[in-house]
Amino acid sequence: MPAADTRQEFAPPHTPGMLRALVLALLAHAALVAVLAIGVAWKRELPPATVEAELWSAIPQEAAPPPLEETPPEPETAPQPEVKPLPEPPAPPPPVVKQAVPEAPSKADIALAKEKERLLEEQKAKELQAKQELERKALEKRQLEQAAKEKLDKERAAQAKLKEQQEKDKLAKDKAAREAKEKADKAEKAKKAEAADKAKAAEAAKQKAEKVAKEEAKRAEQERQQQLNRLTGLAGAAGSGSANSTGTAAKSSGPGANYLGKVRSAVKRNITFADTIVGDPTTEIEVSLSSTGEILTKRFVKRSGNKAWDEAAEKALDKLQKIPLDEGGKVWTPLVIVFSPQALFGQ
Q1: Where is 10: in which H helix or E strand?
Q2: Alpha-carbon span 250 to 114, nearest angstrom
Q3: What number of H helices and E strands is found in the chain?
Q4: pTM score, two decimals?
Q5: What would the CATH number be for the domain defined by 254-345?
Q6: Could you report the per-residue pLDDT of 66-124, keeping only the tens digit for each?
Q7: Residues 6 or more apart in contact with residue 249 via CB below 8 angstroms
Q8: Using CA of residue 176, residue 181, residue 182, residue 187, what is the dihedral sign?
Q9: How far apart are CA 220 and CA 304, in angstroms?
Q10: CB neighbour class for 33 (10 Å; exposed up to 12, middle 13-18, buried from 19)
Q11: Contact 261/338 with Cβ under 8 angstroms?
Q12: What is the domain partition of the chain in residue ranges?
């Protein structure tokens, strides 16, 4: 920026009407001073100088003779000698001009002079005051401009610092987001890998369980078939026996029909099933009994495929807790109990 522009920028502002007020004040004071000066000059007008001079004539002149009267001619006289002219007198000295002695100033003159001096001092004081006011305003303006500049510099510095901090925060945020994404990706990959491993393990366990279930079902079917064969053999033996037969062999080889009816009746009283039964789901549970008929253990020999019916059969045994004893207090263990809606409820 040029130096002239800089000076103009920091120059004090022009006070509106200041110049016109100064001009009017100067004109008023000049008029007053002129009036005072005219008054003083009029009072102090010097009296006209008095000049005295003596006039000298170079040739003396005689007065004109009176008119001649006719007189008789006089007798001729002898001729008179020629009269020589007198020498010229010396030149008169120049006139002496007497200077007028100035009069002592009067009180009015002194008062006017003092008033004039007071007005001049007052004018100087006003001019000095105006100058000082202008300097004060200029200084105040410079101070305000300096303060504004410092404030602007501080604001700019604060904005720059804030911008820098925002950029740092953004970088840190981006870095944190990137790291979080990488961590989430890793966790997702690990989760997927774990899920895949679990799925594989579950599949393996399922296959193993299915294999075990098939083996158990096969074994249970074999045991069931053996039990049915035994019961069938008992029934055949009972039906083929003679009326005189005591039935000791039949009674000692398996439970009778009366006993199985007692067991079926006890189970029926404890089974609870509110759902609608479709078909005839059959559940077979093998129980081990104590010498008093209490149920020690139980296991599914065959499931019906209806989970609710299987649970109802198991809960019925839990409620029953004890199987009725056969005649003579005999206990049949292990015992396979068949749960069938048609067998229990005649459906």
Answers
A1: helix 3-10
A2: 168
A3: 7, 5
A4: 0.30
A5: 3.30.1150.10
A6: 555 555 555 555 555 565 666 666 776 666 555 655 667 788 889 999 999 999 999 99
A7: 237
A8: positive
A9: 13
A10: middle
A11: no
A12: 254-345
